[in-house]
Design a protein that fits this description.
There is one protein chain. By secondary structure, the protein is of the alpha+beta class. The protein has a single domain, classed as Winged helix-like DNA-binding domain superfamily/Winged helix DNA-binding domain (Arc Repressor Mutant, subunit A). Helix content is 59%, strand content 17%. The chain contains six helices and four strands, in the order H-H-H-E-E-H-H-E-E-H. Strands 1-2-4-3 form a four-stranded antiparallel sheet. Strand 1 and strand 2 form a beta hairpin. The protein is globular and about 40 Å long. 21% of the residues are buried.
Length: 98
């Protein structure tokens, strides 16, 4: 776990919002945009944000690099899901050290 990368990723409000959306995908996205085995389609995240695909892709890349998201490719689709193990470990590290 690279805490500095995680802090950098969480410094942006859109990235925090994306993580919140992915915490409750059933409530946030249309059912046909979710693959419960893999996560939420990148196109659904882009559509919800209202931003350009390249902008959303760059934000998602930062979250993936920090380890906060797991990416799965299925055919032409890219799905994103939260890395709950890492998020939990990071939260515990914050709780213990700050």
């Amino acid at each position: 776990m690279d805490a500095d990368l995680i802090h950098k990723a969480l410094a942006n409000p859109l990235r925090r919002e994306i993580l919140a959306w992915l915490k409750a995908p059933r409530e946030t996205f249309a059912r046909d945009q979710i693959d419960f085995g893999h996560g939420v389609a990148m196109s659904a995240i882009q559509q919800r944000s209202g931003l350009a695909q390249s902008t959303v892709s760059a934000h998602l890349a930062v979250l993936v690099e920090a380890g906060l998201l797991v990416t799965t490719r299925v055919g032409q689709w890219t799905f994103h899901a939260r890395n709950e193990t890492l998020i939990g470990a990071f939260a515990e590290q914050i709780r213990l050290n700050l």
